[in-house]
Amino acid sequence: MNDFAVENEQGVRDVDVVVIGAGQAGLSAAYHLRRTGLLPDRDFVVLDHAPRPGGAWQFRWPSLTYGKVHGMHALPGMELTGADDGRPSSEVIGAYFTAYETRFDLRVHRPVEVSAVREGEGGRLRVETSEGTYATRALINATGTWDRPFWPRYPGQETFRGRQLHTANYPGPEEFAGQRVIVVGGGASGTQHLMEIAEVAAETTWVTRREPVYREGPFGETAGREAVALVEERVRKGLPPQSVVSVTGLPLTPAIRDARERGVLDRNPMFDRITPTGVAWADGRTVDADVILWATGFRAAIDHLAPLRLREPGGGIQVEGTRAVRDERVHLVGYGPSASTIGANRAGRAAVTAIRRLLAREPVAVPELSVP
């Protein structure tokens, strides 16, 4: 039997579920779709715009080794074992995702760009892509945030004669040797960039909107649940999600302690304007720079969902669990509280459980994921 979705006379392929994105959340969803008996390319399809497996990890800078990441919770059904902490995380996780897609025969289509999801015919959603159009009964959106770097706007920004770049295109510290660098942002990426660059730059300046909050001791399960609950409350209200990390604070690791003692993490308040040669504060203080590096985070990559009018007045999509409140056919995974790797796993499973009910098929039990 041919297990590839058949095109109708309009050239549209009918499937039960389209998964957009093959990062942690998308692969988790695809795994659980298979576990419930659906077949890839016949009942569901996974579309990914990236050139190869690895999700957003494949775009991380080479100096971000696996040992430096905050932790990579294994995908369901297959552990990540024997990883070399000194190897770039892009390589480690890229190889792991490649093996995972192969082992479970997920048949990810790539590179495929999804331009729009809109209302289709017969109660289906119409998914318009670079490889054609799909008509689907349900949609799992797992597009993450990497494709939407957030660039704040400040007066004079266009006059700066140096270089401006974002975490999304950070090349590693070597390119900043001998330069004066301003790093903007108080999150994990900002501090990692700053500590690396300070080793080779002529001068570094750290600027953040808020005073950084450092977290002492281990980050336990209770604290994790509390942090996720804060993010979840925002998406339940239809507000744009914040990252889980934004409410947990920075872990006070030995490297961060050392950087603070050496004055590398000497925080300055946010500047008021950008000049041709650097930045300036309202009190008259200025700093000259060759580079401004914006480690200012990302926003959810959901513009392709705009035709469905899912956004609330607050700017976000109101979500209950993983389901978009305005359209029960649409589930968002890796969005808001499920943006962590373990959260993405759980969200993939939850979305599939809800979608199986929506498809009105005989419910199939999905085993609980073990959490170490």
Structure description:
The protein is of the alpha/beta class and 372 residues long. It has helices spanning 24-35, 89-103, 188-197, 221-236, 254-261, 341-358, and strands at residues 12-20, 44-47, 114-119, 125-129, 132-141, 163-166, 180-184, 203-208, 214-215, 250-251, 267-269, 273-275, 278-280, 286-288, 291-294, 319-320, 323-324, 327-332. The strands form 4 sheets. Strands 1, 2, 3, 4, 5, 16, 17 and 18 form an 8-stranded mixed beta sheet that branches. Strand 7 (180-184), helix 3 (188-197) and strand 8 (203-208) form a beta-alpha-beta unit.
State mean pLDDT (0 to 100 scale): 87
Overall geometric form: globular
Distance between the termini: 41 Å
Unreliable stretches, pLDDT < 50, 5 or more residues? 362-372
Which band does the percent of strand residues land in? 15-25%
Residues in helices, as a percent range: 10-25%
Could you say which structural class the secondary elements and strand pairing correspond to? alpha/beta
Number of helical elements? 6
Sheet with the most strands, sense and barrel status? 8 strands, mixed
Taking Cα atoms only, what radius of gyration do you get, to the nearest Å?
Answer: 22 Å
